[in-house]
Every structure is written in C-alpha cells, then in structure tokens.
Amino acid sequence: MGWASGSSLFTAVITAAKRYIKDDKARRKFYLAILPEFNGHDWDTQAECNGQDPVFDRILREQGYYEEGDWGEPEEEEDE
User: Are 10 and 1 in contact (CB under 8 A)?
Assistant: First the structure.
C-alpha cells in the first residue's frame, strides 16, 4: 500500500523549487533533503513526478526509481 497523493504534493514542491531555487546544485540538495520525509510516509508513486524537473529526474534514476525503458527512454530490443 502506498501514499499516492504524495505525487500531487511533490508536484507542488517541484513547482516552487524551480521557481525559487534557480541553482541546480542547490535544488538537488533541497530535493535530497525532503525526499526522505515523503518516502517515510510510504510514498510509492515518485515516477508520476518525472518530467517536471531534470534535476529531480536524475535523482530518481540514481536512487533506483527508474528502470531501463521507463519514461520515454528507448528500450533495447532482445535477440530471440
């Protein structure tokens, strides 16, 4: 069971962060500081926030919320 409403709340966080924290490194630190609070409340729909901020997207990939082929990334075809 997860906390699906976390995505709509985190979308608001991303919107504000992009508006008020122009520096990518500072925004990354902010996201990394706040993510544990969301994840600690059983948020399991992080991927729904993909595409809103490349800085956040990179964090998702680094922390394993991303699988090859997700979010418009080209999948490699398997040989049969």
Answer: no
